[in-house]
Write a structure and sequence with these properties.
The chain has five helices and 28 strands. It is mainly beta. The strands form six sheets. Strands 1-3-10-9-5-6 form a six-stranded mixed sheet. The chain has a five-stranded mixed sheet with strand order 12-19-18-14-15, with no helix packed on it. Strand 14 and strand 15 form a beta hairpin. It is elongated and about 100 Å long. InterPro entries: Ig-like_dom, Ig-like_dom_sf, Ig-like_fold, Ig_I-set, Ig_sub, Ig_sub2. Pfam families: I-set. This is Palladin isoform X3.
């Protein structure tokens, strides 16, 4: 009609019919490889983490189930892209023997079965659903369902992308529920009309990776990593207890090529303790997360000191021997043993190294041999210093001596008044020599001449 009245060359016809791809509220889409890796990581962690009690009235007994089957999905969750205010329903079907318990999560955090925002349902055929009547921008994220029974766990995830209603040239939804009308590109736009404004797509920031609460020792390094998505690329800012953090020699803010933002604090001091908030902002909105940093007091380091040193020791061949001492230090030092220039790194059945929590150290040798003789060194080392102590071990050969005979002395009869002393085996002549050596006092088995006295 317009072409007949105005002429074919001057008339432009606008198609106000809604495209077929948007005739339904929930538009399915494929996630990117980056989003798929994130989804896989979420599922991996959830399947190995403890969970709160499920809303299902399913109880498992102690007795094993015959023909038990781990949970599996007959129908998995799908990914949806919708506009805020629209309803959305995630649906899947799960089976297993015994009947699995069902748990729902959003971005790795469990959704309470008593949630007022989400409607969680499950029918007898195993179909499970999670529904929200009116989606908001905060509903944007990854939704995971996990099924568990005594045979195992399994999970799958659906991505929900919520867009603002004014994106892509849309007008706000009318109360009467009429469909939105979108103008396709006219011929004049396609021919290069630069005066018509270009419509852009904006996505509110969303944190796909965020750290939890941290405890760091004073003087150490602290690193907080996060990753955020959004269009245009969001700007990040950090706050400590509500006060902005400015980069300086101890506080650095980095961005890696893979999009991970990092706040690095080195060294950490007691003033760095508190509540940290990271805020991501772009033209579509903002998002934030918070964590608490606890700074543990720094230990007073003390270098090692030998309270009791090793002592030089001698032992007979074949007998056990201990080289022992006591050392102190903060933190408790590491102990190293050496024989001459050779390190003793491992204990054996014959030579073993021992120490306790009170500083006692010991090198035990079972059945010492001549090869064990030598200089032994023990060293104690910690972050504050190192100290060493050395001792000598001698191994003696045992001498097997015959016991001395107690045979009585033979004394020739004499009328001498010293005869009684000679009967007791005393060499009177040797006893009265002033320059005699002690060796002359040894007993002789020969006869004693009384006339020599």
């Amino acid at each position: 009609m317009a072409r007949r009245l105005l002429g074919a060359d001057s008339a432009t016809v606008f198609n106000i019919q809604e495209p077929e791809e948007e005739t339904t509220n929930n538009q399915e889409y494929k996630v990117s490889s980056c989003e798929q890796r994130l989804i896989s990581e979420i599922e991996y962690r959830l399947e190995r983490s403890p969970v709160d009690e499920s809303g299902d009235e399913v109880q498992y007994g102690d007795e094993p189930v015959e023909n038990g089957v781990a949970p599996f999905f007959e129908v998995k969750l799908k990914h949806y892209k919708i506009f805020e205010g629209m309803p959305v329903t995630f649906t899947c079907r799960v089976a297993g023997n015994p009947k699995p318990k069902i748990y729902w999560f959003k971005d790795g955090k469990q959704i309470s079965p008593k949630s007022e925002h989400y409607i969680i349902q499950r029918d007898l055929g195993g179909t499970c659903s999670l529904q929200t009547i009116a989606s908001t921008l905060d509903d944007d994220g990854n939704y995971t369902i996990m099924a568990a029974n005594p045979q195992g766990r399994i999970s799958c995830t659906g991505r929900l992308m919520v867009q603002a209603v004014n994106q892509r040239g849309r007008s706000p939804r009318s109360p009467s529920g009429h469909p939105h009308v979108r103008r396709p590109r006219s011929r004049s736009r396609e021919s290069g009309d630069e005066h018509e404004p270009i419509q852009e797509r904006f996505f509110r920031p969303h944190f796909v990776q965020a750290p939890g609460d941290l405890t760091v020792q004073e003087g150490k390094l602290c690193r907080m990593d996060c990753k955020v998505s959004g269009l245009p690329t969001p700007d990040l800012s950090w706050q400590l207890d509500g006060k902005p953090i400015r980069p300086d020699s101890a506080h650095k803010m980095l961005v890696r090529e893979n999009g991970v933002h990092s706040l690095i604090i080195e060294p950490v001091t007691s003033r760095d303790a508190g509540i940290y908030t990271c805020t991501a902002t772009n033209r579509a909105g903002q998002n934030s997360f918070s964590l608490e940093l606890v700074v543990a007091a720094k230990e007073a380091h003390k270098p090692p000191v030998f309270v009791e040193k090793l002592q030089n020791t001698g032992v007979a061949d074949g007998y056990p021997v201990r080289l022992e001492g006591r050392v102190s230090g903060v933190p408790p030092p590491q102990i190293f043993w050496k024989k001459e220039n050779e390190s003793l790194t491992q204990s054996t059945d014959r030579v073993s190294m021992h120490q306790d929590n009170h500083g006692y150290i010991c090198l035990l040798i079972q059945g010492a041999t001549k090869e064990d003789a030598g200089w032994y060194t023990v060293s104690a080392k910690n972050e504050a210093g190192i100290v060493s102590c050395t001792a000598r071990l001698d191994v003696y050969t045992q001498w097997h001596q015959q016991p001395q005979s107690t045979k009585p002395k033979k004394v020739r009869p004499s009328a001498s008044r010293y005869a009684a002393l000679s009967d007791q085996g005393l060499d009177i002549k040797a006893a009265f020599q002033p320059e005699a050596s002690p060796s002359h006092l040894t007993l002789n088995s020969g006869l004693v001449e009384s006339e020599d006295l």
